[in-house]
Design a protein that fits this description.
By secondary structure, the protein is of the alpha+beta class. The chain has one domain. A two-stranded antiparallel ribbon has the order 1-2. The protein is elongated and about 70 Å long. The mean pLDDT is 89. The structure holds zinc ion. Zinc ion binds next to α3. The site of zinc ion has 8 residues, from α3.
Length: 97
């Protein structure tokens, strides 16, 4: 292979920024490039995956209702259920450092 064989490869084919998806078309399979989904949200204390938070791009999140984006409770979307339970108990007892 010579250096010039790869000279005109489009940038989207060289970078892994876009997701590669193989779509079946009437003429066979075709490679298409798609945007990747963001990572799942994680708890800020124990970094466990948070439940009830959709994996959407910010443009999609803007269109969806606020109640669909995070649990409607104190620390919803920031702490996992166990950590928020512990935090609420500690705050109520007034024993936090
Ligand atoms: Zn946690």
């Amino acid at each position: 292979m010579y250096w010039c064989d790869r000279a005109m490869v489009p940038a989207r084919a060289k970078s892994r920024t876009m997701r590669r998806v193989f779509r079946r078309t009437p003429r066979g399979t075709k490679k298409v490039f798609e945007l990747r989904n963001p990572k799942k949200a994680h708890c800020s204390v124990c970094s466990r995956e948070l439940q009830g938070i959709p994996r959407m791009r910010p443009s999609e999140l803007g269109n969806s209702p606020k109640t669909a984006k995070r649990p409607e409770r104190p620390y919803g979307g920031v702490l996992c259920s166990g950590c928020s339970r512990r935090r609420i108990l500690v705050n109520a007892r007034g024993t936090h450092d």
